[in-house]
From TrEMBL:
<keyword id="KW-0012">Acyltransferase</keyword>
<dbReference type="Pfam" id="PF00583">
    <property type="entry name" value="Acetyltransf_1"/>
</dbReference>
<dbReference type="InterPro" id="IPR016181">
    <property type="entry name" value="Acyl_CoA_acyltransferase"/>
</dbReference>
<keyword id="KW-0808">Transferase</keyword>
<dbReference type="InterPro" id="IPR050832">
    <property type="entry name" value="Bact_Acetyltransf"/>
</dbReference>
<dbReference type="InterPro" id="IPR000182">
    <property type="entry name" value="GNAT_dom"/>
</dbReference>
<dbReference type="GO" id="GO:0016747">
    <property type="term" value="F:acyltransferase activity, transferring groups other than amino-acyl groups"/>
</dbReference>
<feature type="domain" description="N-acetyltransferase">
    <location>
        <begin position="15"/>
        <end position="163"/>
    </location>
</feature>
<protein>
    <submittedName>
        <fullName>GNAT family N-acetyltransferase</fullName>
    </submittedName>
</protein>
Length: 163
């Protein structure tokens, strides 16, 4: 199936998970399979973390791209995402776009929405970490590369500041 649409497609919405909580299971399953299942974490643990996004606090929260009831992608904003940099935060994390919707600019839009929403809470700086092969993507999206080769996974650390 080749999806129609892009971020210029008005049928694709980007919402806070608090407004569309029925996507919590989709987020938990995708995030768990991508990052946590290979490390032996149970799905219930990740589902609990995702449920934490439904509270009435500023952070954590999750952003969801969807077309009606069809889940397209997500990004979360969390307090801490990199054990080696506990002093930094908050972070945009767990960025996921369904494979059939990749290449349409949705990932960049989801990340931008998450970062803008975090900055709107009053924080001065938001962070993101990624594998080096994603460096050019995040730089094109306006993220500042702050560090390279951090931790065992040799991640890049990016930041975005409130203007």
């Amino acid at each position: 199936m080749v999806p129609r649409g892009s971020m210029t497609d008005p049928s694709i919405a980007i919402s806070n998970l608090r407004d569309v909580p029925y996507f919590a299971d989709d987020i938990a399953e995708r995030v768990w399979r991508a990052w946590w299942e290979p490390r032996g974490f149970p799905l219930d643990h990740i589902a609990g973390l995702v449920a934490g996004n439904l509270g009435d606090h500023h952070i954590p929260f999750a952003i969801v791209a969807h077309r009606g009831a069809t889940f397209i992608g997500t990004a979360s904003v969390i307090d801490s995402d990199l054990e080696e940099r506990p002093e930094l935060g908050p972070w945009v994390a767990a960025v996921w776009v369904e494979p059939t919707f990749r290449g349409l600019g949705l990932g960049a839009s989801i990340v931008r929405h998450a970062a803008e929403a975090a900055l709107a809470t009053g924080v001065e700086t938001i962070y993101l970490c990624a594998l080096p092969q994603k460096r050019a993507f995040y730089q094109r999206c306006g993220w500042q590369l702050d560090e390279k080769d951090v931790g065992e996974s040799r991640l890049d650390v990016f930041s975005m500041r409130r203007s």
